[in-house]
# Entry
Amino acid sequence: MTAVLFDVPGPRARRRHLIGTVVAGLALAALAGWVLWVLWDKEQITPEQWEPFTEPNIVNLLFEGLVDTLTAAAVAIALAVAFGALFASGRLSDHAGIRWPSIVVIEFFRAVPLLLLIFFLFLGFGGPLGTFWALVLGLMLYNGSVLAEIFRAGILSVPRGQSEAGYAIGMRKSQVMRQILAPQAVRSMLPAIIGQCVVALKDTALGFIIGAPGIVRDAERIYIAPQYNNPLAVGIVLATIFIIINYSLSRLATYLESRMRREGRAVIGTEAVAEG
Amino acid sequence: MPDYPPELVARLLDGFLVTLRLLALSGLLATVIGTVLAAMRVSPIAPLRAFGTTYVNVFRNTPLVVLFLIAVVGLPAVGLLQGSFFSRAVAALSVYTAAFVCESLRSGINTVDPGQAEAARSIGMTFGKSLRIVVLPQAFRAVIPPLASVYIALAKNTSVAGAFGVTEATYQLSNLNRDFPDELYFSFLGIALGYIVIVAVISGTANRLERRVAVGR
# Structure
């Protein structure tokens, strides 16, 4: 409960809250009942709709699709980290000739919709690249640019005395960056990086649109099959799978963030991650 | 076949008009739903808080594409959400973005120092007064930057509608590429430029708004 909005409740407020709890509980139960009734009425809560998800070949299909999706997301994140590190150091460079192109690249790929990028890569280079790489490279360019900004914030969050100490003992800028700033920055950026993994994993589902391998494309094959014809059930199953994975990752990120804050260390939190 | 440059401009205008309509409508709906959810999440009533939390966790962690599948294919297949592709896209974008609006508002309210509200109550302000005069004006200030990035993300997310039967700006890339395959780079850069302008307008407005309500602290 937000302390800024409410005092510790007294007896009357507690009574009001109790009444509110009962009323709201009933209203929400009614809402849930209504949703279930509508689904029942539309014949969505029937064995025909949900039984396919117990068939071994369907479970296998979804599992293989999930592996494809996770592979694409993992490759994309790994490439994005490299891309982000490269352009973050470019943006932090002392040479304007390196700094400005880096800024343009980062800002361009952050402002352009990811789907437009993926479409462009698919339409322009889909032949040699294939759908998988069109998706992965699009993810790399977008997430890499977001990560570049996270990395930059991480480097800048290291206390200035650290780099000054490095220069004082005669290190060059690249040495200070590699041996002093980067190792300290990495820990503080961990929550934001995991948060960005959640974004990347969700965006991997966009591959469905260009037909890249992945769980959404495989799931589509289930519901367009005339013997199943259960798009709503498939959508709910898909959503549940993504929610379980992403929610666990998000919890991990917030856990790391709160642990670092407790230890009094600088931290680039998940709020640094672009929304959506 | 008409010339490329005028055709590019015409289709970009068509596309971005739809994009802007998607953005405006779903932005408005998401703001309304998100505000209600945020009020639930900070309310003293436990079931409402639980509902708000569940909503945010569900919709923030579902890929937008899957929401589009449910809204465009799943629900209409069983006779629900029978409207146009445009209205289905607005539904998917709104319920998705509402979760992010809610979180921005909630974090904004949480940045206000509890001492502010305590001070307001100790000089005898009622709940409504302390909210209106002391808490919300400060929360509003803290909410502008995260809310702006939510709307920017929404502007970019409207592109997904292009894959689900709405002829907005991103759809125009494949549309233009079909008729002018040699001009793919120009088509891409033209559409990209349009999005960059939208993003710049949103963040510029947010910056000006932020400066206007800024106070020296």
Summary: The mean pLDDT of chain A is 89. Chain A touches chain B through 59 residues (CB under 8 Å). The radius of gyration of chain A is 24 Å.
